[in-house]
Amino acid sequence: MKWENIIFFSQVIFLLLDFTLNVNIVFTHIYLLILFFLILFEYRKKFSERAPFYNNIYNA
């Protein structure tokens, strides 16, 4: 499984938990942490699309 899929599924799970627990503080902190990593991976993906040389290093 790719990291993007794992982050997406965990994001959906924590969103559902937030709705059921009426926004518990611990889960919102974890959700914000996951959201931060999602933005980080999206930025890295866009950066690797612009620079194919770095993309080849990641895939090697």
Query: What shape does the CA trace take?
Result: elongated
Q: Domains counted in the coordinates: how many?
A: 1
Number of strands: 0
What is the radius of gyration? 15 Å
Distance between the termini: 17 Å
- Helices and strands: which structural class? mainly alpha
* Percentage of residues assigned to helices: over 70%
- Succession of helices and strands: HHH
Percent of sequence in beta strands: under 5%
Assembly status: single chain
- Count of discrete alpha- or pi-helical segments spanning 4 or more residues: 3
Main sheet: strands, sense, barrel: none
Low-confidence stretches: none
Q: What would the average pLDDT be, to the nearest integer?
A: 69
Describe the protein in words.
87% of the residues lie in helices and 0% in strands. It has helices spanning 3-20, 25-50, 52-59. It has 60 residues and is mostly helical. Helix 1 (3-20) runs antiparallel to helix 2. It has one domain (3-59).
